[in-house]
Amino acid sequence: MTARERAERRAAIGFVAPAVVTLAALTAGPALWVFWLSLRQRVPVFGIDHFAGIAHYAFLATDPRFWSAFRVTAVFTVASVALELLLGLGLALALRGQRVGRRAALALLLLAWALPGVVTARLFEWLYHPAAGLVNVALGVALNWLGDPALALPALVLADVWRTMPFVALFCYARLLTIPAAVYEAAAVDGAGRAATFRFVTLPLLAPVLLVTLLFRTLDALRAFDLMFVLTGGGPAGLTETLTVYAYRSLFQTLRLGFGSAIGVIVFVLVMAVAAAYLSVLRRREAAA
Amino acid sequence: MTSRRALVADVAVLVFLALYAVPFLWQVLTSFKPEAELLRVPPLWPTTLTLSHYEVVFTQSAMPRALLNSLGVGVLTTALACALGVPAAFALATLRVPAAGPLMLGVVASTAFPQIATVSPLYLVMRALGLRDTWAALVLADASFALPFVIWLMTRFMREIPRELSEAAALDGAGRWRTLLSVHLPLTAPGLASVALLTFLFAWNEFLFAFTFTATEASRTVPVALALFPGVFEVPWGDIAAASILASIPPVLIVVGLQRWLVRGLLAGALTE
Amino acid sequence: MRAILLAAAVVLLAGCGGPPRADAPVTVVFKHARMFGDDPVPRLVAAFERRHPGVRVKTEALGSSSDEQHQFFVINLEGSAAARGPGFDVMMLDVIWVPEFARAGWLLDLTPSLAPGELDAHFPAAAEAARWNGRVWALPWNFNVGVLYYRADLLARHGLGPPRSDAELARAVQRIRAAERDPKLEGFVWQGKQYEGLTCNALEALWASGTALLGPDGEVLPDTTRAAHALARLRGWITDGISPPWVSAADEELTRRAFGDGRAIFLRNWFYAMDLFDAPGAPVRGKVGIAALPGRGAAGPSPGSTGGSLLGVSRTTRHPAAAVALARFLASEEAQRVLAGGSVLPTRMALYHDPALVAKRPHMPRFHDLALAARPRPVTPAYLMLSTSLQPELSAVVVGVKTPERAVADARRQLAYALQGLR
User: Fold this and answer.
1) For A32-82, what is each residue's pLDDT tens digit?
2) Cβ proximity of A201 and A187 under 8 Å
3) Domains and CATH numbers, chain B
4) Of C63, C68, C80, the CB nearest to B128
5) I need a labelling partner for B80 at 20 to 30 A (CA). Which of B272, C207, C359, C377 fits?
6) Looking at this predicted complex, what is its ipTM?
7) Three-class SS of residue A27?
8) pTM for this structure?
């Protein structure tokens, strides 16, 4: 290496070092530490801190509450992401042809997306109020949305779709804007109807964006915490308790740091596995293209 | 599309948007509705409008202090993430950083980390440093997620700047810091603004870390104060609505005033590749 | 003159139970949740300061929810914070936290500072919550017991007395509802939401079925048959129509309002609710009776669980003598009498027959008898862990998504693992 290259390398390290040290201490370090914690029995109040091996994982493997939380997480993620994609894509397509109120529409969508999750939770909590909630008044029913075992999870999904759909809509809309009108004109000349245009022209051009937003939205849905924690607290009867809520309750309501960390590790592995799977699909598409 | 169909489609979209806005509008209305009329619906529209809920929120609740805490934590997190992230992005974009590939991969991967996984070790860190219930705990915890994001996006923005510009600056005798300050920063300023806005928004909205690391009004941020909003005898829906509206003000300002920059930041994260 | 003052000071100090100190001005910090309505604590604190010249008391408010207060204490008492000193000396503790805090080493052992038998003046259930491992860790301060409220006017109209068993309760509900023909009138409302209140209701159900949450050797739900029986009773009230379905999402306030607005015949709630029923202008004023919770079968009524708070002293306080003196003063008879004049019920038995207090609250003697029969929630450091792990299972039964047997089995399994090695 020449002296110049060495100097550049030194400078590069200097620029990068503070960030890397911070990341190592706050992000990478904890990500590794949580694995170690999950192998321990650590309960501060009782002064307990000793190695426990895979005891927590062995317990969770046959823990009905864990599998219930897993199921809730899966259902929530699939339902939420599917609805977001459909609604977001539909809205983007509709907005593309919209002549009036596009700027206001974008502002409204952005606002719903930008609100703190806690605000959205309290918003919907009030909407779902059994006696005075707008939903019940508008539908003329007296349903207990957040307390009924059959309704609580759909109610939660609806609230989540409301706040995340804009993300999909925005991305699809931005992509649609970059498709030149000439492409549609060519399709029209070829005699393609609206459905065919959508299937063979629009959708393939949107596919990369859809896949990327699918990735982001899935990861976010798997990690979601604030909405369900504040809106339902995981109730009734743990029917809206996702893995994150189960982990949080174990960690900080009962201060079982080892056990809660094990659940956290499982969420971590799940999220990274999903991310890896998506990325490999994306890469295969790019290789085929 | 025939013009009739276009009109119907336009109206349909407007109707949908109106319905979509209802949750938020209902909360705004509730915040001005007198207490006695809150639970008596229908009628939906109140007979008079009142500021009593906002008064309660400002004088008797933890919200004013929480607004200050959130503002402080948001600004400091953004400052820290940018101060550390921009130089790192500059190096990754223009210099030969050792192990740049794995480093970049690690940075991007860490944006996918679930907060629930890192919260327990961070709790122990904050406990050991005696930082529980302080702004510092939240700034550091939020930065752990904001920093990778800043590095990732700013590296992208900086890579778009042609090499010739930095080479020209070097020929003029500028050192690397000068190049960053005089060439890259001005050219990526809009991108940096977007990233800073998104970081501030993230810190403002952040709940899990804030809920875990704060114990009193000294450090409680807005989402936590809203989640813990006290009701002595009954849930004070009107007061909560008022508090929710107040909690939404910075996001509203950011969206309305800075829509373009915000959108640019969001899109940069996914579209260019 | 100086000699007399000095003698008086020594006598006062000796009477307070603390050793004579050098008179450096001392500040003791007292953390407590604000009381509803007229808060008598400032007056009491001022009285204490007058008797203890040289001691200043600074009161600081706690958050309003129990969980919030608990998180505050844990953050400030645990880990390195404790070494520096938490910044407060006397704290108001929920009944269920005392053994936990004692086990964690956050509380000062009060046993040496107390006169023998000092706790005997308090209700046995209240005193039991203050003791753990044979030592006294806190002083009982205020009290609540779970009781059955009933509409005395409705029962009298149909010639019924307060129900002593489930069967009598069911019969009363059916008779009265059939006769009153008011579709909005509910039968029996109680707290079935997934929170600590549900655990209290469940404990009372377990006791009524002749079992308990913890066995003598600490085993969780030792008698699974009786435990399932007890949980089935809770669900049964809903499926039989005696309780409305919304109790599965109801807490104290929701049910209190329903009963207080005249929309329910029976209510399970705490002592404090009676003041609100008797308030001027209340729809049910003068119509409310108080009884013990119904038992099952012929065994007669069963005990209510206890709530309330105690006063603890931080182990790392820099002024142990003054802090203990403050706690003892606030828990003393005269202080509790002042508190009882407000919205809070005392833990000292004698005050429930005090003429002035009874004049204000005629039902105090009735409360006294019910409090004597009350049982505290399990006094174990792991109580919060037990309760928070149990609540989803209880809620699952109440809501009807799990059978009582499954819920008991799942609860036993979870809690056995959680309690492993915790003693």
Assistant:
1) 999 999 999 998 888 889 999 899 999 999 999 999 999 999 999 999 999
2) yes
3) 72-229+247-270 (1.10.3720.10)
4) C80
5) B272
6) 0.91
7) helix
8) 0.89
